[in-house]
Amino acid sequence: MKIDDFQFYAVAPIFIYLLYKSPRIGVPVTLVALMGSCIAAGVLSWTHNFTATVILEVNAFDDFRLMYIKPWIRIPPYLVGVLGGWWTYKNLDSLKLFVGRLRMGQKLLLGCALWLVTCTIQYWIVFGLHSQMLHKLAGEPQSHIAGTLYETFARTSWAIALLLQILACETGLGGVLNTLLSWRGWIVLSRLTFAVYLLHYSLIQSYVAQLRHAFFYRPDYELAVLYIGFLGITYAVAALLFTMVEQPVAFLERIFYRR
If 169 and its partner were Cys, which of 11, 29, 178, 189 is the partner (CB 3.0–4.6 Å)? Predict the structure, then answer.
């Protein structure tokens, strides 16, 4: 999974160059790549009968091998970010002027609708799987169509919702949420996010590997304790990694480039 980031970083200049030099070519190429990734995820999910939640599934390893770690399946949020960044670069000032001309009531209505829709999408992408797990534990059959639709659109939908939230904050439609998200205290945690991304999966896997009993999906209290524990331990280890590796390397880079 970590190598995916490098691959995305390596191919991004192709899309950025096309978008900058020739949007008539860059936009279709980026959209085709995005749609191709979504279609590939849907086809694999349908043909291999993958459900939206692979926990407790006999074909969980196949899902991991064929979809979860594959860069062409994981790239949609990255492409949405590239396309959204280009569109914002070209149109943000015009969008700010448009929003600035709206009446206060119109701004309030538009902002509330935008945040309600995007937060609802993000909520169902993350927590909508809870009902699927309950049906699975009850031994009820899983909806093949629902699983395929989820695998096809979940990643892209999350990225689009996040992009719209960023645009809302940039155009003055963020309100209190923009103030909260702009809190300078997040800067400290943001410096650790890449280390957290690198470490969290290994820490979770080490916990699961040392279990002497089957892992049961028990919602609410038990999973909340596990989540808080993993979150705290991961950020603590990430802080050590940042202090002992990432920050010294960045310091050496600055010295090197100054010369």
Answer: 178
Model confidence, pTM: 0.85
Q: Residues for the chain: how many in total?
A: 259
Distance CA 128, CA 258 (A): 50
Q: Position of tokens 């969290």?
A: 200
Both tokens assigned to 4:
């995916």
Element (H, E) at 66: none
On the 0-12 / 13-18 / 19+ scale of CB atoms within 10 A, 47 is exposed
Contact 21, 27 (CB under 8 A): no
Site of tokens 């699975």: 136
User: Does residue 54 have a pLDDT over 70?
Assistant: no
| Range name among 210-214, 224-228, 234-238, 251-255 with the lowest pLDDT average | 210-214
Is the model's pLDDT at 237 over the cut of 60?
A: yes
Report whether 218 contacts 176 (CB < 8 A): no
The Cα–Cα gap between 168 and 175 comes to 9
Our CA angle for 150, 156, 160, nearest 5°, is: 130
Number of neighbours of residue 117 by Cβ within 10 angstroms? 12
Secondary structure E strands in 83-226: none
Asked if 76 and 155 count as a contact pair (C-beta separation under 8 A), the reply is yes
Q: What's the token pair of residue 75?
A: 């790239």
Predicted confidence (pLDDT) per residue in 65-82, tens digit: 888 888 889 899 999 999
Nearest to 201 by CA among 58, 75, 69, 78: 69
Q: Report helix, strand or coil for 191.
A: coil
What integer pLDDT is reported at residue 59 of this predicted model?
66
Residue 38: Cβ within 10 Å count: 19
Closest CA to 115 of 203, 186, 176: 176
In the predicted structure, residue 1 carries a pLDDT above the cut 60: no
